[in-house]
Amino acid sequence: MCRADRARVRRLCRAALALAAAACALPAAAATPLEMPTPTREIAAPDVEQLRQTVTRFNDLIGGYPTRLASPAQREATYAAWSQALQQAWWLQAREPDSEDSLLLLSELYRQGHNMDVRGAGERADETVQRCIRLHPDSMGCHFSAAYFYLSIDPRFAAKGEASLHRLHAMYAPQLNAAVERGLVFAYLYQGRKGDARRQLDVVLGLQPDAPWALRMRDALDKGEPAVLPGR
Fold it and tell me: Which pLDDT band holds residue 230 (cuts at 50, 70, 90)?
């Protein structure tokens, strides 16, 4: 992996560490589903690096579920900007259908669209990220995208997220990546594997001894109390 690729993965890791933050002011139940945009031919060739940065910035607002959109007006503006980015990613995919870049960008955009209640975005996120993993099994970006997607949609899909996290763990070895090790805690908890989660918390606390969420969760599990999951 080249230096630029590693930098992009580090940015993705940093952005994703905040995906489990508290719910926003606009309840998901109050939001009307949005329509999936229709591809258009009237679009200029995108700057791929600028598109990557745009997609990463979207994580601040729509990287997790529920989103952090504070008003209907902000939701409308974000949907418009997201739709434009999606058109650019479609343009790229039409010319490089099997490239890691196009598949990762689309995986992230569909994941974000699902968080924003765009019709069909969840199914497309699943299909695209699985295709990315199949064609690029060592893509750190696609495995991160898969992990965050599957751990955020429903506990029934947590095993898929866990699989990508284990692949990332192997790729980072012998070093440990904080985002990967943290994700495994939630993957285990979402599957009801409290013992595995408790052991994984020791790994996380070895990396981040003062992490408040990990200390609280460890104490809760030790006391036999329900573990409070961020964003749940």
Answer: low
Query: Cβ–Cβ contacts within 10 Å for residue 198, how many?
Result: 18
Residue 100 pLDDT level (bands cut at 50, 70, 90): very high
Rounded to whole angstroms, how far apart are CA atoms 159 and 221?
A: 21
Phi-psi region of 224 (alpha: psi -120 to 50; beta: other; left: phi over 0): left
Give Cα 169 to chain centroid, integer Å. Answer: 16
DSSP class per residue in 133-161: HHH-TT-HHHHHHHHHHHHHH-GGGHHHH
34 bridge partner residues: 118
The DSSP call for residue 21 is -
Exposure of 141 in the CB half-sphere (CA atoms within 13 A)? 27
Is the confidence at residue 66, as pLDDT, over 80? yes
Name which residue leads in pLDDT, 8 or 137: 137
Determine contact, residues 121/110, Cβ cutoff 8 Å: yes
Confidence category of residue 96, pLDDT binned at 50, 70, 90: very high
